[in-house]
Amino acid sequence: MLNDIQEVLYDEGQIQAKVKELGETLSRDFGGRNPLVICVLKGAFVFMSDLVKKMSIPLEIDFMAVSSYGQSTKSSGVVKIIKDLDASVEGRDVLIVEDIIDSGLTLSYLIDVLERRNAKSVTVATLFDKPARRAVDLEADYTGFSLPDEFVVGYGLDYAEQYRNLPFIGILKPEVYQK
Ligand code: XMP
Ligand code: MG
């Protein structure tokens, strides 16, 4: 598995330090608001799990699964809800937790859905961002790291469902997905 990684971009220590910093900032900004923290499955599950442990305020969590990629490394632009929330977002301060923003299509669709369901506010925290690849005008409210335009895996991110369990984020060797 480690043989398939061309370069580690951020190691475990760097990621954990950033997640702690984000958790502390979010605790300050969402204190007293009992936010509904939404994990966008599957990729955000690792970040979500570490992040909420660094948030020292009352909050609720829920999960949503959307698909936009399938087995490919490029966005199809088509977003589908695979698993919807259990909770109602009406009147709630919602915090969307994303693993990575690439084209921005997934996120713009999600924000739209939650706003139409009358969330009181919709805020986005993403650990990784690839600003060079944006297809829609959209920025996260909280971003961990900006990444180069390379396909990355680890810390929740996959290629064909593999590599999610790596504790760091790295660039996948192109020969792995060009096979
Ligand atoms: P969009 O293009 O809608 O994409 O912003 C967001 C979703 O695409 C996935 N994604 C990646 N997954 N390595 C991955 O493993 C990547 O480099 C990558 N870029 C985008 C991811 O699921 C994200 O939620
Ligand atoms: Mg994926």
TrEMBL record:
It comes from Paenibacillus radicis. One of its GO terms (molecular function) is magnesium ion binding. It comes from the Bacteria. This is Hypoxanthine phosphoribosyltransferase. The keyword Membrane does not apply. It catalyses: IMP + diphosphate = hypoxanthine + 5-phospho-alpha-D-ribose 1-diphosphate; GMP + diphosphate = guanine + 5-phospho-alpha-D-ribose 1-diphosphate. It is found in: Cytoplasm. Keywords: Cytoplasm, Glycosyltransferase, Magnesium, Metal-binding, Nucleotide-binding, Purine salvage, Transferase. Purine salvage pathway enzyme that catalyzes the transfer of the ribosyl-5-phosphate group from 5-phospho-alpha-D-ribose 1-diphosphate (PRPP) to the N9 position of the 6-oxopurines hypoxanthine and guanine to form the corresponding ribonucleotides IMP (inosine 5'-monophosphate) and GMP (guanosine 5'-monophosphate), with the release of PPi.
